[in-house]
Amino acid sequence: MTEQMRDEQLYLIHHAMVDMDRNYDHAMKLLRDKDNPDQHYTRGSAHYALGLLIRNAPGDYERACEVLGKVIDLQYDCPDEIYHGTFRTAPQEPHPPIGNLPWKTFAPGFAYFLNDTFEKISAQLVDMLSANTSEASNNVDVKNIFQSAVNQVLPPVWKSYDPNWREFIACAFAVILANFERMLPDSLIDRMDASMIKAVGASIDRRLSDAIPMNSNIELMHIFICHFFGHRYDNEDLVSHAEHEALKFYAAFKEFGSFAEFNTTTYYGVDLTVLGLWRKYGKSDAFKQIGHEIEKGLWENIALFYNPNLENLSGPFSRAYEMEMTAHSSIGVFLFLALGKGYEYLAAINCESEHDPMIALVDVDVPLAIKPSLITHHSDRLVVKQFRELCERDEPGANTNLCTATAWIEKTLMIGGMSGSRNTNGQMHPATIHWITERGDKYYMRLIRRELGGHWNSHIRGITYEAKADKDLLVVDVHFDTDKEIELYFEIRGKNLLAESLAPDVWTFPGLTCKVEADAPAPSINKYDEYIEMIYLYQPQVLSNHMSFILRFLI
User: Fold this and answer.
1) Bond from prior residue into 37 cis (ω within 30 degrees of 0)
2) Tens of pLDDT along 335-344?
3) Contact between 506 and 514 (Cβ < 8 Å)
4) pTM for the model
5) Are 554 and 510 in contact (CB under 8 A)?
6) Burial class (CB in 10 A: 0-12, 13-18, 19+), 267
7) What H or E segment, with its residue span, contains residue 93?
8) For 3-38, what is the HEC assignment?
9) First to last CA, the chain
10) Is 236 exposed, middle or buried (0-12, 13-18, 19+ CB in 10 A)?
11) Where are the alpha helices (DSSP H) in 30-77?
């Protein structure tokens, strides 16, 4: 296998395996979680097993079999539970609550109404206690106590289990079976097949119930595993489901040539990986052709918003952890595969590097017409692109709002703005700025929010943005319809940032000056080692429920 690979593919496998070897726990037969060394990591371990089988050095085969067996041991086998068929994210994870949620008896989309009901009960409980007891001074604790009680009875998604581990691990198992079935023990293959029957069946239950909506990257994985294992097991129901879902995804994509999970530094890397699985391991020409068209369209989207000088997407981002493309993404890995020697730094080790052996197998398929724009900035441009988002926490049937992304992209500056979104997810970045200095130092700024004392990566209802980018200009309007105190803030990251260089009407950064017109409260500033927060506090019943900003940029 490796003798037929290009140098770039071999490089990916080698550097990812060196990193994963370092984190392998011989006693547990699993990878340690790099972010939490006291925990282990089942998803990464499944990808490690694939890498071991590809490398096939002395001892790799035996270790891969042990790792796969351990991952299977950590699958939930609870047919009546909403988490059936998924896998513990770590063996240290406690078992979710059991026996209290007959979820298959509810109508599709019930999770939205259940969550909405709990939010109303929580608010009512706080009001009642505030009116009748001394708990008025401790409202947050009351809400947390109530939520904790709920979580001990009902299995809270993302907290007590991760449903997406079904799809991620099933993709890894599919690739392993496609390439290495003949060398694996029959007993292990039997266990893998039994595991996949549970995982794929539960994935379909999830999809049909819409209990936990699937974002684009999970939807692509879901379609692939139903297609692959449907053909493997000669199961016409699985194959038909996959064909139906593939056509539906393709039709939605063709409306604007975009995903619900749009322009995302984090998830485009997963999308490209899975579309590569469609391309390489699809079992029918029709399935492969749909995947090819979507993969081509995804690269066209990437090229629209990509600046090769800054080596990043401009934003705005429908969902992302980071503004830096190589921090929490595999996009840099695909660019390295496409551009070749000299671009190894784009594939530097990060939290997604476990996928690199799989990515090496599927390789890259960039349309020839796009490749020059990934190497050289040819012209400044204004980009306008529409997409339909997915609001995970909104009512089914009313959770696919039409959004418009605008971006101004020039040689050393990128600006992004999003309008139309009603997403409650903190990973949505409606206003973004990137720039690079003459010395080559890169900076970025993003507009995010958090409850007072909370974290930005959370769901908060009642905050909407209308942002638009133009040449050296970003206009943002923010509306608040919430009784929570909210910190709306611009986070600026880069070297040598000085708080004293930020006046309310002029922000002076290395390589960039920003003139500010703000209809908002006077800001406060938090200064940290590598970033600054410019904070505008929203206080309900005290201030207007509207803030606006006009930012003009001078290089």
Assistant:
1) no
2) 999 999 999 9
3) yes
4) 0.96
5) no
6) buried
7) none
8) HHCCHHHHHHHHHHHHHHHHCEECCCCEEEECCEEE
9) 50
10) exposed
11) 42-55, 60-73
